[in-house]
Amino acid sequence: MNQNQRFLSLDVFRGLTVACMILVNTPGSWQYVYAPLGHAKWDGCTPTDLVFPFFLFAVGNAMSFAMKKFNTLSNAQVLGKIFKRTLLIFFIGLFLNMYPFGRYDAEGHFNFIDLSNLRILGVLQRIALCYCIAALLIHYLKPRGTAIVTCLLLLGYWAVMYFFGAPGDPYSMTGHAGQAIDLAILGESHMYHGEGVAFEPEGLLSTLPAVGNVVFGYLVGAYVQKNRHARGMLLKLVIAGSFAIAVALLWSSVFPINKKIWTSSYVLYTVGLATLLLSVMIYLIEMKGWQGKGTYFFEVFGKNPLFIYVLSGMLVDTYSYFRLGPNHEGLYSWMYNHIFQPVFGDYPGSLAFALFHVLLLWLVGWWMDRKKIYVRV
């Protein structure tokens, strides 16, 4: 590998996660989703539950390249860059929560959004906060100190959940310690209600262990850059990834693997799997030269990941502006009910609908790549 060459495997890894995010977020019908494309109901981990932590891991990988530039900047300049990026990503996420600024009711009347019920947190907001905390740790404590603090965060989160959660049920949806914090700080009306109760899967307390996905992604990226020509580099990565998975599985016997409250065992489990997958990609792409059409599909997503992800959310929400038929059916459900379901059936049609949007957004990314348009935040 050329020392100055960008790691193509990183773009492919990041692009794969973005493509999977679109795939799992846009089924034709949430009633007809194949099990691997749905989240675990509570404890456990499906392939879909790997997507978000893998993206955070990729954020850390990218930071291992980008933060090299911080060495030439003053402390004030570094902090300015970190906080500017954090706020920008956070408020883009908040904008997505507001968009399309209202909804149609059953009678077809458009009602503007009620800000008193606006959800404050979300996927991009978690990315922003995790990036901010991880970047500050790395900047001030350097890799070794950051690794130690991250391990303490994972252990401390377990202790807080165990000792301050509901007696006898500290890891339940409404009994975990983070629930009380979210209710007190965010307020019930500003939390996610998709589970039938006020519950924030991107809650404030559970953001702390999620920082671990970014930090370990950074450490893996930094290690690969430093040892890219060293013998045994990939073997050590495989051993590290396997070790993280083994520790996670042992830990899960007392602190279950759970995405919705982002348990510490879930962090280690997903970090281990991400490390193994990235190791395979580095071997095939960087070392064996597996480049071309097979990798380019994911490269397209990886070159404009945030923009394409935001566009996917806005596209789906924009459908709600269009009402069709006497029942004022939204365009999203109309497309599935009148095009994809009749042609492919229930489950295959729902999957085909999602794949259609993956391909549609890929075309946007492909056009941007052709025009050398890269949106950086």
TrEMBL record:
Q: Which residues cross the membrane?
A: 12-30, 50-70, 82-100, 120-138, 145-164, 203-221, 233-254, 266-285, 306-324, 344-368
InterPro entries according to UniProt:
DUF5009
Taxonomy, superkingdom = Bacteria
Q: In what residue span(s) does the DUF5009 domain sit?
A: 9-95
Q: Which UniProt keywords apply?
A: Membrane, Transmembrane, Transmembrane helix
For whether the record's keyword set contains Membrane, the answer is yes
Q: Which Pfam families does the entry link to?
A: DUF5009
Protein name from the UniProt record: DUF5009 domain-containing protein
